[in-house]
Specification:
about 350 residues; 5-stranded parallel sheet; Rossmann fold; Four Helix Bundle (Hemerythrin (Met), subunit A)
């Protein structure tokens, strides 16, 4: 990432309404490869009253900022981070690798740093892996004001010790005190293998004074910003769909194979962008359709009429989702739309068994 862009994107976010006590001094690091997602979360946190939000364009950039905090904090203008919010599915250095480094690497600036992982429709395996690596919380996208606020409230009052035992270092995974006959996790003065309970120096909780209570007007401002971002999301997807339609028309007009495959490659990149944006703004149907289109346009063999007809069906389905404003599963209309498209996928696969599409079950 060019240094000039990094400085511009990471300029401190100053709250636009009265700051709740302590929030002005809070520093948050957001790590996500999607620029709009980074800016959206930063905007919401700013509405809450958070003083400084730095944004990393991926795991590698986040790691660089964490290392600079230890060596040259003056270069990024803050002395430390109070919270990390990171996408779990970043490329190169993903959320798991970033969290592992924070918790276990000897050069980590703060192994106790609160860490919120986020993912679209996270699986049980993802949540379990994050917990076992020491994540503080795990949230599903699309981000909502209530969920993000609840997570900050939880962290502000989080008094859990950190646990150090073979294979694990992080916050106590027991959220409740449940009586047990023998607690094998107690420190053993006799020197037998046991668990070390460490009092975590929670900078975030200390700055917030053990509470996080944004004013109603702050919540309303944050919701207004989220609503604005969602409207802009629809406009962005419509723009991508217009580009996709243009590429599809170019593929249909092309007379040579090379030109058709160039158009197909462009369509593949556009579908990937649509999928990326759909993950963040409450349009799971867009995610499903764009993923299926992306898998379909990965094919590099014969571009015949059946193939083009299936691409056409995907584009029409995406247009229908936006024009009808279908959110979540789209209800009866959305489910029927997906069923019909996956039926077309299965038919296509039966006639072209070497081609692999998205799950069409």
């Amino acid at each position: 990432m060019p240094q000039a862009n990094a400085r511009s994107e990471n300029a401190p976010n100053h709250a636009t309404t009265a700051d709740p006590p302590g929030l002005k001094s809070v520093v948050v690091l957001i790590a996500d490869e999607n620029l709009k997602t980074r800016n959206l979360i930063a905007s919401i946190l700013s509405s809450f009253g958070v003083g400084t939000v730095l944004r990393a364009g991926g795991g590698a950039h986040a790691l660089e900022l964490l290392q600079q905090i230890r060596r040259h904090p003056e270069r990024i203008g803050v002395s430390g981070f109070d919270l990390v919010i990171a996408d779990w599915e970043m490329t190169q250095i993903d959320g798991a690798a970033l969290l592992r480094w924070i918790r276990r690497h000897p050069k980590s600036p703060d192994p106790f740093l609160p860490f919120i992982a986020m993912s679209t429709e996270p699986s049980r395996d993802q949540v379990r892996a994050a917990r076992d690596l020491g994540a503080s919380q795990f949230i599903a996208r699309p981000i909502t004001i209530e969920v993000l606020c609840d997570q900050l409230v939880s962290l502000a009052v989080d008094t859990r010790n950190f646990i150090k035992v073979r294979g694990y270092f992080g916050p106590d995974r027991r959220h409740h005190d449940i009586p047990v006959e023998v607690d094998l996790r107690c420190d053993d003065p006799a020197g037998r293998p046991g668990v070390r309970h460490l009092i975590a120096p929670n900078r975030l909780a200390a700055k917030l004074g053990g509470r996080f209570e944004p004013e109603p007007e702050c919540m309303a401002e944050a919701q207004n910003k989220l609503d604005t971002w969602q409207r802009e999301f629809v406009v962005t997807i419509q723009d991508y769909l217009a580009r996709a339609e243009s590429q599809f028309a170019a593929i249909e007009r092309a007379h040579d194979s090379a030109a058709r495959h160039r158009g197909l490659a462009n369509l593949n990149r556009i579908s990937h962008q649509i999928h990326s944006y759909g993950r963040n703004f409450g349009f799971p149907l867009v995610i499903t359709l764009a993923h299926s289109l992306h898998k379909l346009t990965c094919q590099n063999d014969t571009i015949d009429s059946d193939y083009l007809e299936l691409i056409r069906a995907h584009l029409d389905a995406l247009q229908a989702v936006l024009s009808l404003g279908l959110k979540k599963d789209g209800g009866k209309v959305g489910r029927k739309l997906i069923q019909e498209l996956f039926r077309a996928n299965r038919k296509f696969v039966r006639h072209s068994p070497d081609r692999i599409l998205a799950d069409s079950s």
